[in-house]
Amino acid sequence: MKRVTITDTHEWTIKSLRKEERMLKDSFLRQRVMIVRLIMEGYLGKEVAKRGGYFQSIS
């Protein structure tokens, strides 16, 4: 499976995203920052989708 990549980080690092994630009060924004951070850490798209609550299994 092909990995999802971030092409431009806008000078954000994994550490700074984690710090920003903790400070956000809006849960939707916090979740989006977490997803970007996980992709930067090297997680696969399916793993990130599961953690973000976007994964639905087809039965």
Please provide a written account of the structure.
The protein is mainly alpha-helical. It is built from 3 helices and no strands. It has helices at residues 14-23, 27-41, 45-52. Helix 1 packs antiparallel against helix 2 and helix 2 (27-41) packs antiparallel against helix 3 (45-52). It is flat. The relative contact order is 0.19. The model has no long low-confidence stretch (mean pLDDT 87).
Average pLDDT taken over every residue: 87
- Report the biggest beta sheet as strand number plus sense, adding barrel if it closes: none
**CA distance, first residue to last residue:** 21 Å
The fraction of residues assigned to DSSP E strands is: under 5%
Query: Any low-confidence stretches, pLDDT <50, length ≥5?
Result: none
Number of helices: 3
Which structural class should the secondary elements be placed in? mainly alpha
Q: What is the CA-based Rg, rounded?
A: 12 Å
How does the SSE layout of this entry go?
Elements: H1 14-23, H2 27-41, H3 45-52
Helix pairs in contact: 1-2, 2-3
In short:
With 59 residues, the protein is mainly alpha-helical.
Keywords:
mainly alpha, flat, 59 residues
